Amino acid sequence: MSPSLLLTRRRQYGAFHEALDSLYGADRLTLAQDNMPDTANLQGLFDALADLIYKDGRFTVSQLRSKEARRVIVETANVLAEGVNTQLPTDVSDTLRYALEENTFTFSGFKTFHAMREIGLSLVAEDGNIKPFRQFKDDVKAVNDSYNVNYLRAEYQQAVGASQMAAKWVDIERDGDRYDLQYRTAQDLHVREAHRLLHGTTLPQSDPFWDKYYPPNGWGCRCTVVQVRKGKYPLSDPDLAMKRGDNCTASVKQQMFRFNPGKQMKLFPPKHPYYKTPTSDGRTVSKVASDEFVRRQRRELEAWYKSNMPTVKVGKFSAKRFDVSMPDGTVFVNKSFYKECVAKHPESDLYPVRLAYARKAHDMLAKATKLYDEPSKDHPDAVFEVWQYDGKEYRVEFKVKRNADGRFLHYMRLYKK
After folding, report:
1. CB neighbour burial string for 276-287, b if at least 16 within 10 angstroms, e if fewer
2. Per-residue pLDDT tens over the stretch 18-28
3. CB-based contact 265:99 (threshold 8 Å)
4. φ, ψ dihedrals at 402, nearest 5°
5. DSSP-assigned letter for residue 153
6. Residues of 206-231 as b/e, b for ≥16 C-beta within 10 angstroms?
7. pTM (whole model) above 0.85
8. pLDDT tens digits for 168-214?
9. Dihedral of CA 184/222/95/87: which sign?
């Protein structure tokens, strides 16, 4: 990299940090250090990633596929997910739960990309030569302190607040317009003036105002909404409410929060500066982050069935499987079913949810209704029984393979209701 290009890139990242400091501002200081998850593991992984870049002599986007980069992405997502998991109720919809978890991986991927680019810029001295390793490590510490200490505090707090409000939106949406929604601040001396002006805004759940100004409306925002009985409070004028919201969030950093985390099922603003990357690099980041999210779901399913499948006696031998009692006999669920779920259709948007549902398959199958039998194209000695379970969010279709050895759960499909 030429000295002039190096200088230009460093100036760009100087402006990038100014933008992030302006975005997060003092808000990142409102979260005490002892409320943050332990990030010691992340620090060690970040150092290993820096060592890889130093060894290669430069940063390239292909390094995102390295085990060092993937580990940083996963651990960053783990830190953010810890905030999410403290707020999501156990009965929250599976669609929302896994969409928010995937969003932490995507956000962590783009965050790691920018940190790696800055590490690459820290390699080279002003004269164009590679810095001595000790000087390089001092510069890496500054990069780490920015991304994994200062910024991470504000981002963790955003994950906590947005997940809480996203879960709340699910309940609000379920009730529809039976109640009105009212915007409320924390009503103390720390409330931002822009948010104070929105306090008391009362509109139906279906009003477009909530698409843009449903909290949180900034880093560290403590605002909320409450459902109120129809007629208890006069409705706000929709046009005036929207205009007031627009005026209160006119700056670029405020406009970023014009989204509804429950509706869009995202924790972080879609226009966050991390997402600004060259198009081809962005595709690589998204792919690596998505792959790591899916890999996580696969590992969790594998660990679950290995730990939870009971051991049963089969003649003189033993086997690990669930024996599901059905109206017309027993269906066996063994590891081949879980492996089939992992192997099939990983490109589907419902793939992570399907892997999660696979853990409940033996319970759902026991409550399923048989639809019909169908011949097997790939297994000429078998017939497939098709069963259906109606869940709260999904219709689940099971295929049970029946042959001379017995009846075995083969696969499952999910259909959004």
Report:
1. ebeeeebebbbe
2. 989 888 875 44
3. yes
4. -115, 120
5. H
6. ebebbebbbbbbbbbbbbbbeeeeee
7. yes
8. 999 999 999 999 999 999 999 889 988 999 999 999 999 999 999 99
9. negative
